[in-house]
Structure formats: C-alpha cells, structure tokens
Amino acid sequence: MIKKLLFFLMFLLFLPLLAKAEMKITEAGGIIYIKKTTVSELENIFKKHKYLRFRGLDDNAYPAIFLSTLPTDFSEIKSQKYRNELFIRILTPLALKINEEISNERNTLLRLERKFAQNGTLSSNETEKLETLALKYDVFTRLKGANRIGYLLENLKQRVDIIPPSIFVAAAAMESNWGTSRVATLANSLYKEKVWYTNEGLEPLENKDDGYRFKIFNSLIDSMRSFALTFNSNKMYEPVWLARALSAKRHDTVLGESIAYALATSSNLPNFAGILNYTAAFYDFMSLDLGHLKRINNNVP
C-alpha cells in the first residue's frame, strides 16, 4: 500500500515534466518543426528567433518555424487581439512554404514551355512531368501530340501560381473562427473541407444526415496544401486566376487585396469577399504578401 502511495506521489511530482516533454522539436534544412506545444513554449521559441510581430522580421522575412498543430491551449487565450495575431504568426510561414512549392512547380512548367517553343516537342521524361502536373491540377483534354502539349501548357500556366499569404490566412481565419472552431481543434482543418458519403472524418454536430464529414488532416500545412490545390484546380476559381495574373503584371507580385473581389462566388459565407477584404486591411496583410521565408540559423544561441 505504501509503495503504491509513493509511486502515485512521484507520478504527480513528475506529471508537469512529462506533459512538457510531449513537445517535440526537430530541425532539418533550416526549418524548425514543432509537434504539440503550448502557447508559452511557442513564444519562447519565437522570442529566440526574434519573431515577435505578425508582420515578420525587419527585412520582411518570416522564420521557417512550422507547427504541426495549433498550441494545445490556443483556445484558452483570453485576449482576442493577441490570439488573432498569434494565429497569423503561426500560419504565415506555412503559407510561404506552400508558395515555394508552387513556385518550383511553376518554374518546371515554364522550362517545359520554353523547350516546347524551341523544339515543337518534349522528351518522354518532360512529357511525363507535364502529364503529372495536368493530373494534379485537373486539366483534361482529348487532344493528342503537339496540340495536347500546347493545351496543357496554356491551361496549367493559369493554374499553377502562388496564392497570396493574405488569402491563406484571412480565409482560414474566417472559416475556423481564428483557429478556435471545433473542426480546427479536432481535425486540423482550417477551411472546413468536407468528405462525402464516408465514415471517415469528423462528424458535424449539425446536419448529420447531409452525407458529409469534415476531413481530418495530419497537420496544419496539410490542410493549407489541400486548400491551395482546390484554389488552383477548381474551375470555380477561374475568375480569381485571371485577377491573379493581372495583379502580378501590375504589381510584380500577387496581392490579396487585388484578387479578393474575385472570390465573391467561392464561399457559402455571406459577403465573403467583403469580410476577407476588411480582415486583410485591418491587419495590414499586404506585408504578408510581400514577405519571404527565412531559413533558421542553427547557430542562434
């Protein structure tokens, strides 16, 4: 009996240490990956790397600190202003990382376009790369040969392009109530993505008979990647693609405020474009769109 009591007391003594040990940090390629953390622990990491403002560092850089999930006590933050700004700080590096990935795909696409313009054809390896992108971004045609290649290149150029971080963050804020919704907390789903007629996913509290569940993601960046792919592949967003191309031509970069109006028909939320525009303006999200990802210096003390 005494041994059991001593064991229980020791367990209680070390319980806080065990809870803290759940946080896992790994570093690779100048990126810090954080799995399961608290707000306080996260702020200590941000402070170490001087990431104290949601507008990034002095040179418009955002440190490559990637959270797998929102902090375990994120919803308990009392100050709405602080919670919202922390939400922006967490999501912006993830958005910039996804844009790096999209930019790499676009650069591949542009190289294929130049090669096709020079030679009028592509090698089997190059054609395979093009077909892989077409499959991913849902570009379909029954054309064959050079006509097919030309069609795929033209349509993919419209789709495979970066998404302003302000759109990533503002849309996530609106769809997840700034990261406090049940779907965001339990499913890492920032955009309420649905799966239909399946037992997989998070069951909604209402409309249980409508045949859908909320898709569960392993991480925040997986949810954001899925949003990005839908944004760049669903024909519903075609007016946004055109606005994006125009914004890039006018500003040498894509600004969220320049394409927000074109998102009016992309959501069931009332006045989506207006609310998104207001949110972006209130938090000065243009600084996000002008930002870039900065790899971590492992020598920081």
Question: How would you characterize this protein structure?
Answer:
The chain is mainly alpha-helical and 301 residues long. The protein has two domains: 25-96 and 162-294, Orthogonal Bundle (Lysozyme), CATH 1.10.530.10; 98-159, no CATH class. Helices cover 54% and strands 8% of the residues. It has twelve helices and seven strands. The chain has helices spanning 2-21, 39-48, 80-119, 124-136, 145-159, 165-176, 182-187, 220-233, 238-251, 256-259, 272-282, 286-289; strands at residues 24-28, 31-35, 61-63, 65-67, 194-196, 212-214, 292-294. It has a three-stranded mixed β-sheet with strand order 1-2-4. A two-stranded parallel ribbon has the order 3-7. It has a two-stranded antiparallel sheet with strand order 5-6. Helix 3 (80-119) packs across helix 6 (165-176), helix 3 crosses helix 8 and helix 4 (124-136) crosses helix 5. The longest helix is centred in the first third of the chain and has 40 residues, at 80-119. It is globular and about 60 Å long. The termini are far apart.
Keywords:
301 residues; Lysozyme; 3-stranded mixed sheet
Short description:
This protein is mainly alpha-helical and 301 residues long. It is built from 12 helices and 7 strands.
Uncertain runs: 3-21
Strand order of the largest sheet: 1-2-4
CATH architecture of the largest domain: Orthogonal Bundle
Count of structural domains? 2
Q: What is the CATH level 1 assignment of the largest domain?
A: Mainly Alpha
Shape: globular
